[in-house]
Amino acid sequence: MKYAIIGTGAIGGFYGAQLANAGEEVHFLLNSDYAIVKEEGLHVISEVYSDIHLEKLNAYQHAIDMPACDVILVCLKTTSNASLLPSLVQPLLHSGSVIILIQNGLGVEADVAAMFPGVGVAGATALVSVYKVGPGQMHHLDYGDIEIGNYNVQDTTIIDKVVAAFDNTGLISRKAEDLNTLRWKKLVWNITFNGMCVVLNTTANKLLADRATYNLSKEIMHEVILGANACGAALPESMVYDMLQFTIAMRPYAPSMKLDYDAKRPMELKYIYENPVAMAKAAGYYMSKVDMLLQQLLFLGKY
Ligand SMILES: NC(=O)C1=CN([C@@H]2O[C@H](COP(=O)(O)OP(=O)(O)OC[C@H]3O[C@@H](n4cnc5c(N)ncnc54)[C@H](OP(=O)(O)O)[C@@H]3O)[C@@H](O)[C@H]2O)C=CC1
Ligand SMILES: CC(C)(CO)C(=O)C(=O)O
């Protein structure tokens, strides 16, 4: 199968490099790093796995120069989806292509499916701590699990093949039974920690080292689980403790939203906060603590 990576940043660079390193045919769309990556290749420096240096890779500066691909892995920030995806994805489509969004948030598949009528869309959550440290250079700190849930792909055997390809890289890879539950499960982490790390200018491990913010984190997680379940997800209360353990065990890491805020890039508020708050409210549950966090983030995003 031919894979396209749309947005070769932290996530696109990490997962694309894993696939290419395992022998898959991967075509990388780059932005500001194109010239350096063309010259020097793509590097993933990992604290967990072997480092990867892809010396020769299929790197492109323009989507129009890329071949049609079977699997289009969208790894942009969701803040760019509406403005960039129509022009970046359309040239890569053939009649059997599927688009898989490796992005955080809720409702993103519906918006992308509306842009590409008749094209199968799926969503993926990445449980990984990775960030771009320089042009074509990704620093991988922790984890790497990837889970894929179907939105409207008709022939889902292609999703099974993608799961198998990721599994073959050595990463833990699964097909989720229910995309809605998958999205909300990841949001229990992102809603709690991404926003608080921005508002309190800190990292998740520090939030959990302090009694007051540890308790607040737990309360927000509980609220998100209630919101999720009001929206038809099936999340057990016990996952709060799993997430706390996961976060305590994690190497100190600033979530992607904190990196965006510090770099003065727009934050992914629509899909990580606005949609979940609105959807839970419409389903009869008001996530008041999450909404308060959202209002603070909206304020910070303006100034
Ligand atoms: N980082 C992480 O640990 C995790 C991130 N996520 C989610 O994954 C998604 C991607 O995040 P992340 O990888 O961190 O983001 P990055 O900002 O690292 O990567 C986005 C990439 O898109 C590229 N891009 C922007 N505009 C264009 C364009 N016009 N053409 C081609 N490429 C373009 C950027 O290019 P340039 O390099 O020039 O800026 C950048 O490399 C987000 O939804 C995030 O929430 C999920 C789990 C963990
Ligand atoms: C949970 C975490 C930290 C890594 O998967 C993430 O999703 C992010 O940085 O936004």
From TrEMBL:
Domain Ketopantoate reductase C-terminal residue range list: 179-297
Instruction: List, alphabetically, the NCBIfam families matched.
Output: apbA_panE
Record InterPro entries: 6-PGluconate_DH-like_C_sf, 6PGD_dom2, ApbA, KPA_reductase, KPR-Related, KPR_N, NAD(P)-bd_dom_sf
Any one GO cellular component localisation term in the record: cytoplasm
Residue ranges spanning the membrane: these are none
Q: Which organism is this entry from?
A: Chitinophaga sancti
Role this protein plays: Catalyzes the NADPH-dependent reduction of ketopantoate into pantoic acid.
Show the Pfam families listed in the entry.
Answer: ApbA (PF02558), ApbA_C (PF08546)
Q: Gene3D superfamilies, from UniProt?
A: N-(1-d-carboxylethyl)-l-norvaline Dehydrogenase, domain 2, NAD(P)-binding Rossmann-like Domain
Q: Which UniProt keywords apply?
A: NADP, Oxidoreductase, Pantothenate biosynthesis
Q: What is its EC number?
A: 1.1.1.169
The reply on keyword DNA-binding is: no
Which part of the chain is the Ketopantoate reductase N-terminal domain?
3-152
Which family would the database say this protein is a member of? Answer: Belongs to the ketopantoate reductase family.
Pathway assignment: Cofactor biosynthesis; (R)-pantothenate biosynthesis; (R)-pantoate from 3-methyl-2-oxobutanoate: step 2/2
The protein in question is named 2-dehydropantoate 2-reductase
**GO MF assignments:** 2-dehydropantoate 2-reductase activity
Is NADP there in the keyword field? yes
Kindly report, in one word, the top-level EC class recorded for this enzyme: oxidoreductase
Known catalytic reactions: (R)-pantoate + NADP(+) = 2-dehydropantoate + NADPH + H(+)
Give the GO terms filed under biological process for this record.
pantothenate biosynthetic process
